[in-house]
Amino acid sequence: MTVLSVRGLSVRFLMPGGRRVAAVTDAHFDVAAGECLALIGESGCGKSVLVSALLGLLPANAQAAGEARLGDLDLLAADERTLARTVRGRRIGLIPQSPAAHLTPVRTIRSQLQEAVAQLTGVRGRAALRSAAEEAAARAAFPADHLDRHPHELSGGLAQRAATALALVGEAPLLLADEPTTGLDRDLVDHTVDELRRHVDTAGRALLVITHDLAAAERVADRVAVMYAGRIVELTDAEAFFGTPGPRHPYSRGLLQALPDRAFTPIPGMPPELGDLPDGCAFATRCDRAADTCATQPPMTATVACHHPYVPEDSHA
Amino acid sequence: MARLAGRRSLFAAPVLLAVTFGMFAIAAASPFDPVRAYAGTAALGADRQTLDRLRTNLGVDRPFAERWWDWLTSALTGDLGQSSVMRQPVADVIGERLLWSTLLCTVAFAAAVLVGTLLGVLAARRQGGWFDRTVTSLAYTLSAAPVFWTALLAIWLFALRLDLLPAGGLTDTASEHVTPGQVASHLVLPAGVLAVSQLPWFTLYVRQGVADALAEDPVRGARARGLSEHTVLLGHALRSGLLPVLTLIGSRLPELITGALLVESVFSWPGIAAATVEAATAVDFPLLAALTALATVAVLAGNLLADLLYGLFDPRVKLSEM
Amino acid sequence: SAPGDGSGGGGSADSVVIGVASEPDTLSPLLGYGKDGNSKIFDGLLARDADLKLRPALAKALPEVGDDGLTYTYTLRDGVEFSDGEPLTAADVVFTYETVLDERTNNTSRSELDAVKEVRADGADKVVFTLKYPYAPFAGRTVLPIVPEHVAGDQDPNTGSFNTEPIGTGPYVLAAWSKGEKLTFKANPRYWGGAPKVKTVTMAVVEDDDVRATRLRSGDLDGAILPPNLAAAHKNNSGEKSRGVRTYEARSYDFRTVTLPTGNEVTGDRAIRRALDAAVDREAMAAKILDGAGRPAYGPLPVDDPWFAKGIERPQDLDRAKAILDRAGWRAAADGVRTKNGLRAAFTLFYPSGDKVRQDHALAYASDARKAGIDVTAESATWEVIEPRMKDDAVLAGGGSTGDPDFGLYTLLHSSLAGNGFNNMGHYDNPAVDKALDTGRRSQDETTRRTAYDTLQRELVKDPGSTFLTHIDHVYVLADRWQGLTTQLEPHEHGFASGPWWNIEDWRPAQ
Amino acid sequence: MLELRAVTAGYDQRAPVVRDFSLTVEPGEAVGLLGPSGCGKSTLARVAALLHRPDSGTLLLDGEPVRHWRHRAPREQRTAFGVVFQQPRLAADPRLRLAHLIAEPLHATGRRSEVPDRVTELAATVGLTPDLLTRRPHEVSDGQLQRACLARALVLRPRWLICDEMTAMLDASTGAALVAAVETYRSTTGAGLLAVGHDRTLLNRWCGRTVHWEALQPPRAPEASQGPSVR
Amino acid sequence: MAETAVGPKWRSYGTRRRSTRTLRVRASVTLVLVTVLAVLLVPPLVQLDQQAVDLAAKLQPPSWAHPFGTDDVGRDLLLRCVYGLRVSLLVGVTAALTATVIGTAVGAAAGALGGWADRAVMRLVDTFSSVPHLLLGIFIVAMFRPGVWPVVVSVGLTHWLSTARIVRAEVLSLRSRPYIDAALSGGASRLRIAVRHLLPAVLPQAALAAVLMVPHAMWHESALSFLGLGLPSHLASLGNLIQNARGSLLAGQWWPTLYPGLFLIVPTLAIAGLAGAWRERINPRRRSELML
Ligand SMILES: Nc1ncnc2c1ncn2[C@@H]1O[C@H](COP(=O)(O)OP(=O)(O)OP(=O)(O)O)[C@@H](O)[C@H]1O
Ligand SMILES: Nc1ncnc2c1ncn2[C@@H]1O[C@H](COP(=O)(O)OP(=O)(O)OP(=O)(O)O)[C@@H](O)[C@H]1O
Ligand SMILES: [Mg+2]
Ligand SMILES: [Mg+2]
């Protein structure tokens, strides 16, 4: 059963002087119940914007097109009221990127947690709220003795855990986690990832996790989507992606090769300007397999959008 | 917190000294003539001898520093002196009137802060919407409206046209006893007018603070968490944009007192503020000094409160640094 | 509670609420309260009736004048008690006058009793005043309220509690004084003239004219003094409260004048003064600025006054004004302002700021003067600023005292008082006028005095030391619940003691 | 030489976050500092960059003890450090366009003339395309902002680089590119590097020497535990 | 790049607001321009004496001869409104600017310096604000001859206090932000931090204070004038005109109140509109949302 089904989602930012930034272009994917989809891709390729679009949290100069179905609700067409009252927090939880910036600076973590608990769950009463909040904190490994601190008094990792705790409160059927593991040490990453996995497994919930931490992605994801310059260029099973035969898109390969435990070499060239994308494949300029055909937009096949994908045999080449 | 309060109280003494001394100095330097003020309209028919005699009797030709010192030393022993315009001991003048002024100012201020904040929040909710535009235009208009004007309009509307509220005084003019019910009904108009005169600042600052906060990431985070609009507005946007408002609580006090000055005289409210202008233009040193000392204490307390509130409401402001 | 019911507005005849513009600083006669009579809490030896004639009050009869007008003997009425039950004695009278005359008492009108040499009791019920010089209108000064020595005697008259808790013999006692809000008076059951029918009188202090008018309209007040335009508006609107109100226009001695100081080269010139006198349109000022509630002033005394010199009325006559100036050598220059020997016919006219009526008079005056080629610049200032400049610059002054022409005119015009405080502001100096003033003051003979004041008024037309513009009517609006209300001819100060309520103790309910 | 000797620092005198911490970084050396989340690494980084006054202990800069911190530190000392903060969103003035953000230290130190060249050069180094340079922080992704912050840290050619979890929010390729940029800078200028993070693999790969927090600081008393309650 | 063959249906978020905003900004600019032009051009062009009293033409309702009617001594109200606006704008704008500049500078300096300097400055502010403004105003004005400048000085010198406090509070909160650390590390001096990083953040607050101060200063002027200390009360200033018209309103003549009132409020709203637009322009997020 699909929880979220995204069809042709595109997002543009209108800039002064009539320029447009194509942050997300024509994204198609589904997330099924009990499934975890990891979204990876170069910084600035549009992952966070995609998530914002799903929650209706884009700024006023943005335009969105396409369809994103959550059950029978089209998230893109829904009005702010519906989104605010029934969707956010209740049907879709979000762990935002830069959590420290997304916490209200003048209130303690405890009060924000308790507030979220009070609004999203049926828990009432001082003592009950208190313990529920502490429980939520514990789930994200947020130390209880830091609950009475304000966001600016937290370390990066602590803020990250606070944000995770807040997002888990609503027990939403779909969780969007934007870099849930930044600033965490290995133990905590594992803890968080396991918690997310447990969250998904318990009640057939779905998880869309954006991460740069490929180890974490490997640990949690069922499927992997790779984004490049606003497009999803590869969407495949995690096992195949991380293990054998490995990714098929040249970009995905480059990404994996850049890992510190592998070659630790960056993909050559500059990331493309989203305001001025080429007509064809955006990766062509940086791709060692590029050919003339790359001047046209490659169609998305079953798992990859590339004119010259690696085929399984190539993987050991 | 206690340390800050303690340190401020220590500071209060020199400030009080400076303010009262300054007041004596300014008043002495002003062209106002205490004798003329004392004599009132009778002065316009008085001859030179009478005026000279009054001048000696009132002791107004002594240097102001000397008079300030006298005032100070006797004030320290508890004797606030004799008010020449009121023909009464200063302590009596204050005793009779302070309660009513405090009542008026407190109610008005509380109303201004609460209603102003509420309107500001509602206006900020949809910036540029019709409600926002109505409220802001109204706020700017009100900020441009002199207090005596709003007062007159309020009397005209509520006392005359609608016949809802009494037009002035502390109690019904014919009544002889001060009952809480009467005071309450007589308080509505003056306090309302005073509140309305202070309202624009709160409304507009709250609106600005909330509107700015609404565009920031923390509110985006709060929204994403699924908090209700209400909570987002009050618990997050308002809380983040509250700093200027807290400041206003301290720093609008002087304006409030100035407003009370006018409101009290328009509504025949037997408070102390109306006496202030009289004391000033009459160069009634003892009364003036006592009133400024009172105002100073009020303002210092207000500012201290504001500073303490900063620490409470914005943890990024460190009390230890103030 | 709605203002209509609880307050006096509902209309019982035994209470009245009156809106006044200012509150007395003190209620102690020792500091000047009620010095002209009508003080309600107190009585003087004498009082004035509706026509301002003196009549006995605490004294049994008008005083016996002896020794060529140097002694005045009063016999006290029997059985008068202060409101605390103590009887009135001659000692109280002596105490009152002696305290007022005491140098240390801060009484501003002490100079009015300047003529008194000595006051002494002659037995328990006789008081004898001995004067320094014959002072014809002296009896008029003895309306001064009498205070009880047994209460005020132990206090410092300047600061004592008697200032706010007065006790007197008058028809009313002070029941409450909420400073800045109102004073409540109750009928004095011990009043020697019989307990008043109106049992409660409240004087609500409402500084602002417009607010007073509004509160009157809202039924919060039964009566109030109002500027003429607001009173007129009230008359038109009074239907809304469906209750009768009456408007009373009290004639007054209250004049508005422009002082023309002798020290100023322009205003000191008699031709200029006479031209100005001819150029001003007094009728228009009375009709437009005062909305008809006032009349042209042809001199310090109002046309209604029995002492007014008949025949000095004169209309605006611009041609005459121009002729006078032409003859005196003031020639019109290019900008329309006349000059003489290089001197521009221009001067500054100060008016006290905040006084709308004087402001309008000043502007209208400047406008009229301009038509005759005299450039008058109106400028507002506080009295503090005006005072030192009174001898050089014109001032829009006001004044007027009731009772006797001497009271107002001597201080206004006598050259010996030039520049003395606010007396004779313009340093007017006219021997004929001085002589008339002295005669009027000294002579006991009614005809001699009448001739003297007649001469004086005509002399003022020939050499106008100031341009008298209007006499202002004081306009009062009062609920129509009593019968036979009258007004007195009123002095410059008004509101608290003057007005239709000057004799409130005598009011009788309307049927 | 950058030397921390027995530094104790924190936000509350009674419960310091960093206690008795000692560490030395030689010029040209790259030291990785590895530690669990919330242990005080960022605090230490701020102390080292003269942005946070320690409660006790000394900081020796080329053998000279540092006496003043923050505003009072002499400008040359402050600018000897290039700092990449952990949270780019908070470390960027929201009103400045990225180009200006990068150039701000040049403006602040009166080296206006170098601005155009340095900005173009650094933008290329960290992989910022020209159109991003005209945007303000809220109009770019977190990773792009972090790149601008690195450029800002490099713009004054500091002798010491302090990178607080610089690559935590960057994808592998960009991360590798930035590390390469830092390494190039280091090798050409001989600057010292203190890289803070918890990715052991990354630090091992990047830095010549990786030290562990626990090894440098005596173990904490249990009540002051800063670690997660769930492990 | 090519949009998909069937062009996607874009859902936009905030364009409608944008167009009404443009309209509002244009209206504000026009009004401010008209005001300034009227104030600058009418007095020299129209050579009529605004002080000319004509008792016969007292309180005439608006007509062709007197589009705004006449006041209670028969002066033309239109002319007086224009003259009044001239004086009031001068007083209001100068006083508001003075107050705002002093307040912002003092507040920013106190907040940015912190510590000892902050305390000293803030106690000074406390001292100043202890005396009710009107009183201080009264005394300051009383020391000079009536005129425009004493009023400006008195209003300007008494009204910077709340701005100073507001600005300082904001600065206190801002100055511990990480981006200030970053600036420090970039070698910025205190002054530069105050001017480049703190000040821009508090400008909206200061601007709001300034806008609110304009009408406030205008009426403060009339309150002082009323006490006899400001401008001569027959001189046209909007405050004086409104003040003088009170009695007429109760007597049923609305025009002496309405027109000066409009002259006071409309420019205020226009200035507020401009300030609002400017505020949107300097707020980075609003700015990009409005695509400025
Ligand atoms: N408000 C905006 N206006 C214009 N462009 C924007 C805006 N917000 C984001 N962008 C652009 O959209 C693109 C996608 O940004 P997004 O934040 O989704 O990146 P990301 O994939 O999450 O990257 P990171 O891994 O660095 O977080 C970026 O190139 C960014 O510059
Ligand atoms: N401004 C502050 N006020 C009070 N406490 C603070 C403040 N900043 C950080 N702390 C606390 O100090 C401790 C160490 O924080 P620090 O940021 O140095 O940790 P860190 O090692 O960088 O952690 P992370 O890896 O999660 O970023 C944490 O417990 C944190 O809550
Ligand atoms: Mg992102
Ligand atoms: Mg950290």
UniProtKB/TrEMBL annotation, chain B:
Keywords carried by this UniProt record: Cell membrane, Membrane, Transmembrane, Transmembrane helix, Transport
Bilayer topology: Multi-pass membrane protein
Segments passing through the bilayer: 98-123, 135-159, 287-313
Protein name stated in the entry: ABC transporter permease
GO biological process, one term: transmembrane transport
Pfam name, any one: BPD_transp_1
Transmembrane found in the keyword field: yes
Cellular compartments annotated: Cell membrane
Major localization listed first in the record, in broad terms: membrane
One Gene Ontology CC term in the entry: plasma membrane
Start and end residues of each ABC transmembrane type-1 domain: 98-306
Family per record: Belongs to the binding-protein-dependent transport system permease family.
Presence of the UniProt keyword Signal in the record: no
CDD domains per the UniProt record, alphabetical: TM_PBP2
TrEMBL record, chain D:
A molecular function (GO) term: ATP binding
UniProt record, GO biological process: transmembrane transport
Pfam families from the UniProt entry: ABC_tran (PF00005)
SUPFAM superfamilies: P-loop containing nucleoside triphosphate hydrolases (SSF52540)
UniProt KW Metal-binding keyword: no
Gene3D superfamilies per record: P-loop containing nucleotide triphosphate hydrolases (3.40.50.300)
Annotated signal sequence range: none
Domain ABC transporter as annotated: residue spans: 2-231
The organism's place on the tree of life at top rank: Bacteria
Nucleotide-binding found in the keyword field: yes
Alphabetical UniProt keywords: ATP-binding, Nucleotide-binding, Transport
Protein family (similarity comment): Belongs to the ABC transporter superfamily.
Protein name: ABC transporter ATP-binding protein
Annotated organism of origin: Streptomyces dioscori
From TrEMBL, chain E:
Protein name: ABC transporter permease
Main location: membrane
Domain ABC transmembrane type-1: 85-275
InterPro entries (alphabetical): BP-dependent_transpt_permease, MetI-like, MetI-like_sf
Record-annotated membrane-spanning stretches: 25-46, 87-112, 124-142, 258-278
Compartments (UniProt record): Cell membrane
Organism: Streptomyces dioscori
CDD domains assigned: TM_PBP2
Pfam families for this protein: BPD_transp_1 (PF00528)
Keywords: Cell membrane, Membrane, Transmembrane, Transmembrane helix, Transport
Family, similarity comment: Belongs to the binding-protein-dependent transport system permease family.
BP GO terms, sorted: transmembrane transport
A single cellular component GO annotation: plasma membrane
Gene3D superfamilies: MetI-like
SUPFAM superfamilies per the UniProt record, alphabetical: MetI-like (SSF161098)
Membrane topology field: Multi-pass membrane protein
